[in-house]
Amino acid sequence: MSRLEIEGVSRQFGSLVAVNRVSMSVAAGELRAVIGPNGAGKTTLFNLISGFFPPSAGRLLFDGRDITALPAHRRVAMGIARTFQITEIFPELTVRENLAIAVEVAAGFRLRPWLSRQAKRQVQDRAHELLELAGLAAKAERAVGELPHGDQRATEIAMALALRPRLLLLDEPTAGMGDQETYDVTRLIQQLRQQRDLAIVLIEHDMRVIFHLADRILVLGEGAVLAEGTPAEIAADERVQAAYLGKAA
After folding, report:
1. Pairwise CA distance, residues 192 & 187, whole Å
2. What is the enclosing helix (H) or strand (E) of 78?
3. I need a surface site. Which of 66, 68, 205, 211 has the fewest CB within 10 A?
């Protein structure tokens, strides 16, 4: 059974067809990249998967369950987590505090006025696990807003992982980064692939990252599927070269 199944999904905004009959299947343990020129429909597709708005046609399945009509918060509870193009963090709080908030929300503690000693210990332990995973333990007590963009992005990814997702959507995780920051975030994503139950769908413009990480690539053009295949197949596809990589067909 696929972790995520997208079946002929479309989304219209008035006369604009932002996503046009897109189908895609993602297995547990797979990293699937979605690429395409600006305006190709990539972020709209992510919004459909995460439940920000419903499709105009088609359906979406998560672990075999039809989630087409489910709101975003229900999808999060089922195990779908997402990061955004613009980093979503609490910049004035420390890295540890950001992660603790995410852990509390994931554990259902956010409405409690106080936590028991045992609950606090659970939150602290889980936050520490995430700090270690993201390589941020040495920066745990620093305000996130003071850190380089790469560390801020790593913090956001760690916050998403606090939800213990089975599907993680990463929207341009290396956008605006230098080479070292890109390398660090790419290494973090590579580590996540060791979690065999986790499926990852990645939107990214840096082709070095895409071809290094992806098992398969879906290429969108004007809202429709232009090509799909392994990195080697996509690199050799003349349609992709003409529409996206800037080479003559």
Report:
1. 9
2. helix 72-78
3. 66
Give residue for tokens 């505090």.
97
What one-character DSSP code corresponds to residue 71?
-
Question: Rounded CA gap, 209 and 184, in Å?
Answer: 11
* DSSP 8-class letter at 112: -
Q: Lowest mean pLDDT: which of 23-27, 112-116, 228-232?
A: 112-116
Alpha helices by DSSP H, 108-225: 117-133, 149-161, 179-192, 207-213
Region 24-52: mean pLDDT is 95
> What is the mean predicted confidence (pLDDT) over 114-132?
89
Q: Which pair of structure tokens corresponds to residue 235?
A: 């690199």
Which residue in this structure is represented by tokens 């503690």?
A: 109
The Cα 240–Cα 56 span in angstroms is 27
Give me the mean pLDDT over the 21-40 stretch: 95
The answer on pLDDT for 161 being more than 90 is yes
Rounded Cα gap, residues 158 and 134, in angstroms: 6
Q: 194 pLDDT exceeds 90?
A: no
Among 126-130, 236-240, 242-246, the minimum mean pLDDT is found in 242-246
Beta carbons of 24 and 206 less than 8 angstroms apart: no
Find out whether 213 and 31 touch, Cβ atoms under 8 Å.
yes
3 and 65 in contact (C-beta within 8 Å)? no
Cα angle at 129 between 127 and 135, to 5 degrees?
A: 100
Dist. CA 198–CA 29, nearest whole Å: 5
Distance of CA 96 to the CA centre of its chain: 21
CA distances (Å), origin 143, targets 67, 97, 229: 37, 9, 41
